Amino acid sequence: MDLNYSADDRAFREKTRRWLEANTPTDDLKTLAERKAWHRKLYEAGYVGMLWPKEYGGWGATAMQQAIVQDEMARIGAPPAINGLGIGFIGPTIIVHGTEAQKQRYLKKMLTAEEIWCQLYSEPNAGSDLAGLKTRAEDAGDHFVVNGQKIWTSSGPIADWGILLCRTDPKAAKHKGISCVLLNMRQPGVEVRPLKQITGHSLFSEVFMTNARADKSDLIGKLDEGWAIAQTTLGYERGGNSLGRVTRYAIAFRQLVRATKQLRRNGRPLIEDPVVRAKMGRLYAELEVQRYAGLRVLSALNKGDSPGAASSITKLSYTEFEKRYYDTALEILGPWGQMMTAREEFEEIDTSSGEAGTWATAFLWARAGTIYSGSSEIQKNIIGERVLGLPKEVRADRLRS
Known about the structure:
Number of strands: 12
Distance between the termini: 50 Å
CATH class of the largest domain: Mainly Alpha
Shape: globular
Order of helices and strands: HHHHHEEEEEEEEHHEEHHEEHHH
Largest sheet: 4 strands, mixed
CATH superfamily of the largest domain: Butyryl-CoA Dehydrogenase, subunit A, domain 3
């Protein structure tokens, strides 16, 4: 990817900046309807689904143009689009593996946020061991009958559709006999129970499926070959939306700079403390590393490459950085980091979950990143075995035997 701006790039940046300055909401988006309306406005301006093919509602833009939009949104502090799961990795999975009918039916409504999507992968007894899932989908002619439970389902309470991993051949080996289907979340056989998190939010949920219906026309790929499709989804999840996360980090950094200019310690603004400035400088340097890593992923996607196993490097990097980022922010702000939005200088920030809260909220949420989409330990194993070609890990119990 050429990171030098062409004349067209500079003109695009100017156009984007003017649009965002004229259209970015000045008030917090408190309701789902308000967030959907802003998302739709971004989409109609050409700033959502930028790299998606035009025939499926995308804009066929360049990777550089998407990077420019992310930069400008961070600069002005514009609220992010919603439906991140759908646009970030479920939609791209359908583009790669779905039928033409599936693409025409689902992708455009995903981009416009008419339909919100969730991912139905993790189960209570099969978290990082995803292949241990037990949710069943039994053949019933023109459809499957689905029974089972999923957990840690992001956006579950607001989702209209989900991408579901289920076992269609219970007699097959662990990684075999798994299929990938699209599930209507609004049907009677699907119950969503929000889970209260340590942050106080309920972004996650349990999902119970009791004789739920999944049409065979919504099977992604071939029957019993869902494990390979899941790897595509996880690849996009771990790496494909990294630049969007960096945008949120950049917005938070701008807010942190503002806070250090307004808060005073020993009669002087925090920003004048050399220790604080050193910490801020290190955060900014690490943030730039994450930005360029995101650009590398974006460039690969723009060339038609799938993220693959190397996406684990990106995921491990940004989730471990996120912890350091908010740890350092709380060190700098001290008790003020616990403050809510009672005064302007203590505005809410966007956490990587997309939900606003205090710096303490973001600090707590950052712990989730090293667990979801495969824990940091799982990512290290993938990097070692699939990227570096090292021998597979040998479990301690097998060594003892």
